[in-house]
Structures are given as C-alpha cells and as structure tokens.
Amino acid sequence: MRVSKPRVQPLQMDQWDATAKEIMGRVDGEPLNIFKTLANHSGLMKRWMVFANHILGKSTLPVRERELIILRIGYLCKSGYEWGQHVLIARRAKMTDDEIRRIKSGADANGWSEAERLLLKATDELYADAHVSDATWQGLAKHFNTQQLMDIVFTIGQYNLVSMALNSFGVQPDPGLPGFDV
C-alpha cells in the first residue's frame, strides 16, 4: 500500500447516508473498503458506479482480457488494493498465478498470445502517454471489434482513475487480499 493508514476514513454502515445505503443495499456480504471509503461522497459514488458497473460487468471484453489490462494498470499505478482485488477476480476467471505474476513483466514476457501482448502494450502506452500508438491499435483491431477497442481504452482509463483514488485516499486492504508478491 502506498500509505499505511486511510486518509479518507472508511465509514461503517451505520454512518452512511440514505444514498449510500440505497447503493450498497444491493451488495451481498460485508462491503469492501473501497465502498466504505466512497460512502463519504455518496453522490460521486452513485454516478461513478454506473460507469464502473459497465466496465466490470457489461463490457464487451471477455473476462480474461479485461482482467489482464486491469491488473497491468493496477500494477503500473502501484495500487496494491486494486491489484489484490483483481488477483481474486482473475483467479475466478481461471488465470493462473504464473500468468498473474507475468503481468508485472508486461508485453515482452514469454507466454502471451499476440492479442494479450497487444493488450499489455496498449495499457503501457496509455499509462505512459495517454495514447495508443498506430501500430498497437492496428494490431488490436485484428483481434477486437470497434466496441471492444473502445472498452479496452475505457477499462484502462477507469482503472487508472480508480488506482489514483485508492492510492490517494489510502484505502487499506480488505482481509485476505493478495499483495504484489503473487
């Protein structure tokens, strides 16, 4: 974690306003620290959740490809919270720990398909320059349709934003969250 204690204190459910309770009423189990933190600004949380839910649940990208780029941007941003949450999701999507570890090495690591290498490269390019190069875009276009290409860019951007927020707010790991040592 970038900071050892929260800068924005996570709120317990009995501290939530009506909007936060409405949003989180649809969540099963103990809310994650990200949501407890966002409950401090429930109007923002409500509007952000619409976009976040598209990226995580309604995107045109297959789960494996989505998690590959989310893990890469989380790693590049040094967002331990984001990395850990998506290690769990990637494992449920049948990614191996070896594949997950390899994400840290990026597109040049051995074992990636052409499409996977291009996804990692696009993530690196957007992180470094806020732009996907023509060569990478043309390569991706051989594997993904227009909507998927758009979802690639928005997924990377969404998780870059979330990583910045998590790092800056000091959102601490939930119990059992894996670290970068996976």
Short note summarizing the structure:
With 182 residues, this protein is mostly helical.
The fourth-level CATH homologous superfamily of the largest domain is AhpD-like
Tell me about the largest β-sheet.
none
Radius of gyration, whole Å: 17 Å
Portion in strands:
under 5%
Number of strands: 0
**Low-pLDDT windows of residues:** none
The pLDDT mean sits at 96
Number of folding domains? Answer: 2
Order of helices and strands: HHHHHHHHH
**What percentage of residues falls in helices of 4 or more residues?**
55-70%
So what's the CATH class of the largest domain? Mainly Alpha
Please give the count of helices: 9
Structural class: mainly alpha
What is the CATH-assigned architecture of the largest domain? Up-down Bundle
Cα separation of the termini = 15 Å
Large-scale geometry:
globular
What is the fold named in CATH at topology level of the largest domain?
Answer: AhpD-like
